[in-house]
Amino acid sequence: MPSGAFPFRKVAILGTGLMGGSLAGALKGLPDPPKIVGTTLLPEDRKLAMERGWVDLFADTNGAAVSGVDLVVIAVPPGAVPQVWGEIAGNLLPEAVVTDLSSVKGALYEAYRTKFHTLLPLYTSSHPMAGSERTGISSARATLFSDRTVFLTPFGGEEDSLLPLDHLWKALGAKTFRVSPSDHDGIVAHISHLPHVLSYCLLTLAEQVRRENRYPGFDWKTQKGGSFSDILRIARSSPQLWADILFQNRRAILEAMDSFDHQMELLRETLENGGSENLSRLLSEWTAPLSETLPP
Amino acid sequence: MPSGAFPFRKVAILGTGLMGGSLAGALKGLPDPPKIVGTTLLPEDRKLAMERGWVDLFADTNGAAVSGVDLVVIAVPPGAVPQVWGEIAGNLLPEAVVTDLSSVKGALYEAYRTKFHTLLPLYTSSHPMAGSERTGISSARATLFSDRTVFLTPFGGEEDSLLPLDHLWKALGAKTFRVSPSDHDGIVAHISHLPHVLSYCLLTLAEQVRRENRYPGFDWKTQKGGSFSDILRIARSSPQLWADILFQNRRAILEAMDSFDHQMELLRETLENGGSENLSRLLSEWTAPLSETLPP
């Protein structure tokens, strides 16, 4: 928990779905919680957010929601963020800090730099490494960000936007890591986007083998809790959202896929030509970083 | 739960580690549990198994353990199974059923067919799709097999070995699937071995990027609960055991890796040359089988 007073008294959360809703819930759990104004396209999310006491008031438009607030959090899919910028730019207080929760930064930063730099001067982009394969405020949790990493990428007005957001995320129990747009996209290509790619590819390979009925009578669906279902679960997130994410970060992802192929080639070579001893040595060497420098 | 009396009164479990120990615990949870004789190389596992009441008696050798029992369960790493066959073959009752819990069947079946067919006439190999990245009886759970798939692969004396084992696994809450050695190995190459390969390759790629210090200051280790750590966790199992498994099933695994590469190529092509719409269509199509024909 950082020292000093919590830097925001009135917060607009544009999009109170899983991420925005969880943020609202987390903020309302603070000792002296800010007032929260929300927007959502879903009447049932609006109802649930009010019932839980996570949002004080819903506005009909994003432009109306940001009026008079000292923090705006844009919690919509990454591809839709610039449109929201256009909707809110005219209604902000000069001291208002703006952030988003997007999982890709490069394309967003380009749009900011070329078109929105002067309209949204106090801007640091956030990316909490937390979420769920489910969507909507019904799956939101006030503890979602606790003990998670939040990437902070200053776009503009660094001093006045980075520090208060750093304070906010730490107050919610997260660790923060300040990073440039391109480093952010390279990191998440490895720790999030490539894992999704692997899940999608395993999934469609299994379905193909199933459809060919190569193993008659075998029930692929009821496999539980093993490595197969653990990996497949990753592909459960919204395909539209993930198409948006993968497409926006395609350059870094393609590079990570190439590097991954290289590791597959090394393993293949050992499987084909090495003995069991060589394979054992390779896997021991590869898995040594677990718990030391890599999770878990 | 199958009908009829439980078919075994005295069971030898050779190797009371995670799998063998869990089986002992599960058997002792039955309404009229069999007597259980165990073997282990680890004094602490012996102690814990006795304290829990999961094993009635430990024998000093595998040969001594099987004397007078009506079921032998060989719960050692797959590469060590034929050696155990040699140790027990002379001491079995003629009506004793023998099984193992190995995760690869082809190589084992070859060894059985050529050398042990007449010595172990009542043999059906089992493979419960359950486990943990941890080892030892301290991580064993009596509920480990509940609701899981158990592959049953008759090697010899089909009628008299398959049915009682089918009864046993169903009594412990598992679903059984009877399968040939080669189909077994093809299925597990897709649902278990390839997922491990993917985890190993992601892990070593991440460690390489970390070592190069490509993203200075970024803490790879503390990433929690996301897709990255979910996949990496799979690589946590013993590298020696998994080198043995992968090596024994290398032909089926290499084939699955080739098919996986083909899916990666399709996704790469769409990322490189398709638009966001094409990618969205592809991911929607690929993820449609989830919950329908594939888990979760």
The domain count of chain A comes to: 2
**Major sheet strand order of chain A:** 3-2-1-4-5
Rounded average pLDDT of chain A = 95
- What is the CATH homology-level superfamily of the largest domain in chain A? NAD(P)-binding Rossmann-like Domain
Q: Which architecture of the largest domain in chain A per CATH?
A: 3-Layer(aba) Sandwich
* Main structural class of chain A: alpha/beta
Let me know the number of strands of chain A: 8
The biggest sheet of chain A, with number of strands, parallel, antiparallel or mixed sense and barrel status, is:
5 strands, parallel
Secondary-structure element string of chain A: EHEHEHEHEHEEHEHHHHH
Shape of chain A: globular
- What CATH calls the topology of the largest domain in chain A is Rossmann fold
Oligomer, anyone? homodimer
Uncertain runs of chain A are none
Discrete helix count of chain A: 11
Largest inter-chain interface?
A-B, 93 and 93 residues
Rg estimate of chain A, integer Å: 22 Å
Q: What is the distance, rounded to the nearest whole angstrom, between the alpha carbons of the first and last residues of chain A?
A: 24 Å
CATH class designation of the largest domain in chain A: Alpha Beta
Percentage of residues in strands of chain A: 5-15%
Which percent bin holds the helix content of chain A?
40-55%
Key terms:
homodimer; 296 residues; alpha/beta; Rossmann fold; 6-phosphogluconate dehydrogenase C-terminal fold; 2 domains; 5-stranded parallel sheet; 3-stranded mixed sheet; 8 strands; 48% helix; 13% strand; globular
